[in-house]
Amino acid sequence: MTQTSTRRDRLQARAASGLGLVSVLLLAACTSLPEPIVAFAAAEQAIATADQARVADTAMPELSEAREKLTAARAAVQDKQMVQGERLALEARVDAELASAKAEAAKATAVNDEMKRSTDTLTQEMQRNSGAKR
User: Full-prediction pTM beyond 0.90?
Assistant: First the structure.
């Protein structure tokens, strides 16, 4: 009787673990991927940062593309295409960051050009003043 009882216990244990595995697989199959909330928030923040930096003046194509990709990402999520939605949101963030970087580069170039002009003006003034004293 102990041999039969041990055998029955093993079968019940296997059945229970098999049932547990099946339930986990069913739950995994039934659950959908979560919405890419973090990717959306990052993209929206990058676009807002670009807007605040007045990127529209210097890097409008990149910023427009970021907005279009974010809109497409929202549409993909509504169509239950979470992976594509997240990818598009990430691309939107990168495009907005590129727009910000281009705007910052343009500002830095403008400052650099102004400094060169000022230096040239000072150099000319110094040459003119040193020539007048002789």
Answer: no
